[in-house]
């Protein structure tokens, strides 16, 4: 069994969106993701998807995108991103999901010999965040605490790895840690997977690898060549 991750699928099968207008690398990206996914992911594997799954605006339009995901190998664990307008609360989302799909938002689950938790997250704070940004940070910190507490209960008495889905980069553009990073470390998070970054310069500056015991992976689809990235918790 392997663990994989990929974010920012930006699916739009109900109302096709030409994402290649942003960059040529996005041309036919869904078919490229599918082909490469099938090459590497086995049915018994676990796939983590930290946000921006679909550009759908509602539950009707997201159905083809969820069906597309269901057809792919592996058990997939989803959390929301900033473009997931169809995501209107995890309990409502769970009613939509096919058998191989799981959803997280401020909670955790045990699967495939691991604990997985997550939430949407928030952009790293600027030097002077406005009131709206600060409110988002506080909301997501509360959801993170709920997720980590749920993970701790599931993990009690075991040595299972803990994977965290967090859509935004946990560190700022110059490597400064967001207020959540200390919480990751205190909770013993093994791996944090995130996306959101779509510019080569951002990928080069993104914090990755082992930082004080937590392994960070930027898995935005275009950053990983539209191919799920194999994740190592050690």
Short description:
With 234 residues, this protein is of the alpha/beta class.
Protein described:
This protein has 234 residues and is of the alpha/beta class. 29% of the residues lie in helices and 20% in strands. It has one domain: Metallo-dependent phosphatases (Purple Acid Phosphatase, chain A, domain 2). It is built from six helices and eleven strands. The protein has a six-stranded mixed sheet with strand order 5-6-7-8-10-9. The chain has a five-stranded mixed sheet with strand order 4-3-2-1-11. The longest helix is centred in the middle third of the chain and has 25 residues, at 131-155. The chain is globular. The model has no long low-confidence stretch (mean pLDDT 95).
What topology does this entry show?
Layout: E1 3-5, H1 29-40, E2 46-50, H2 59-71, E3 75-79, H3 90-94, E4 101-103, E5 107-111, E6 114-119, H4 131-155, E7 162-166, H5 181-187, E8 191-194, H6 200-205, E9 209-211, E10 214-218, E11 229-230
Parallel strand pairs: 1-2, 2-3, 3-4, 6-7, 7-8, 8-10
Antiparallel strand pairs: 1-11, 5-6, 9-10
**N- to C-terminal separation?**
15 Å
Mean pLDDT: 95
What is the percent of helical residues? Answer: 25-40%
**Which term fits the overall shape?**
globular
Cα-based radius of gyration, to the nearest Å: 17 Å
Count of the domains: 1
- How much of the sequence lies in strands comes to 15-25%
**What is the fourth-level CATH superfamily?**
Metallo-dependent phosphatases
- By CATH, the architecture is named 4-Layer Sandwich
Task: Output the strand order for the largest sheet.
Answer: 5-6-7-8-10-9
Category from helices, strands and their pairing = alpha/beta
What is the number of helices? Answer: 6
- Strand segment count: 11
> Which stretches are low in confidence, meaning pLDDT under 50 for 5 or more residues running?
none
Name of the level-1 CATH class: Alpha Beta
| Major sheet summary line | 6 strands, mixed
